[in-house]
């Protein structure tokens, strides 16, 4: 339970003082606790819309809990001007139609939640999370990443200060960056080479098969272009890094980042400011995952205990 985890739920009521937790055991008997867990419901099942109804929601049974959490987050939130958006995964071993299959992850099947967290503290804001329940309709789900960013950042435009949002190449494209800028939201993100609207220095540099190839820059070199309110930068690190931003102009400031060499020494590598700012601001959801892992709640297991 919470951060005090025992091998089996019955041990919280154990007569052995090494296991017993009086703060739990003195509230109610273990049989009553199990009966409550067995019959606990968060919503009225009789009022649940049918699957054919346009208002059908796969999360209907836990919507009151989600609303309660959102209100709690709101009461304790201290919004900052820098936030990062990414996915977080929730381990679940049982049967559920909400689980997603992620073949490249260490644990393949789990729940996926889109999160927008404070870049420095990792705090999850009240309206900035959404559980992914699977694609809508048939066929390929177009524009999923951009739609997630638009939805989670919709209320940021109502803040009294301008907000900067950072995300990776799953979400980022030119149209999204321009859309956010027009909503008074600054944004920075890495971008995939095969996106539809990119600078000609990338699009025109193709091989015989029509695929984009690297620019063969020296380490620390970069090129940039601008279109409307969006700046595109390609910077050479160990590999090429492609970024779009509406917050940092590539020619305004050139800085450096530290890189470890093969002999173990540290060397400064020149880079545009957008690279350093992206690295600095992108870790909000990772910090949230780190804190969340401290309070992980797993399924109970039966252990053989020596008596």
TrEMBL record:
Taxonomic superkingdom: Eukaryota
Source organism of the structure: Arctia plantaginis (Wood tiger moth)
PiggyBac transposable element-derived protein domain segment(s): 1-304
Name of the featured protein: PiggyBac transposable element-derived protein domain-containing protein
Pfam family, one: DDE_Tnp_1_7
């Amino acid at each position: 339970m919470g951060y005090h985890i025992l091998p089996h739920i019955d041990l919280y009521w154990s007569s052995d003082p090494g296991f017993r937790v009086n703060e739990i055991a003195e509230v109610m008997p273990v049989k009553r606790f199990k009966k409550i867990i067995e019959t606990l419901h968060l919503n009225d099942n009789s009022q649940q819309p049918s699957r054919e109804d346009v208002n059908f929601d796969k999360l209907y049974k836990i919507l009151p809990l989600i609303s309660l959490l959102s209100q709690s987050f709101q009461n304790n939130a201290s919004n900052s001007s820098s936030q990062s958006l990414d996915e977080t995964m929730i381990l679940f071993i049982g049967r559920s139609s909400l689980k997603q299959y992620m073949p490249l992850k260490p644990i393949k099947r789990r729940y996926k939640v889109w999160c927008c967290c404070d870049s420095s503290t990792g705090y999850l804001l009240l309206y900035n999370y959404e559980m992914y329940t699977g694609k809508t309709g048939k066929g390929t789900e177009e524009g999923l990443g951009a739609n997630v960013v638009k939805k989670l950042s919709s209320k940021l435009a109502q803040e009294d200060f301008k907000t900067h949002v950072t995300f990776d190449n799953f979400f980022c494209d030119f149209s999204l960056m321009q859309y956010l800028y027009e909503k008074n939201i600054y944004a920075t993100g890495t971008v995939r080479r095969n996106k539809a609207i990119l600078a000609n220095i990338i699009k025109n540099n193709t091989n015989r098969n029509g695929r984009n190839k690297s620019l063969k820059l020296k380490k620390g070199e970069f090129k940039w272009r601008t279109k409307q309110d969006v700046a595109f930068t390609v910077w050479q690190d160990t590999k090429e890094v492609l970024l779009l931003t509406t917050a940092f102009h590539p020619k305004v400031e050139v800085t450096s980042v530290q890189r470890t060499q093969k002999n173990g020494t540290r060397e400064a590598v020149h880079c545009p400011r957008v690279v350093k700012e992206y690295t600095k601001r992108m870790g909000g959801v990772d910090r949230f995952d780190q804190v969340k892992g401290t309070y992980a709640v797993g399924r109970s297991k039966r252990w053989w205990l020596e008596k």
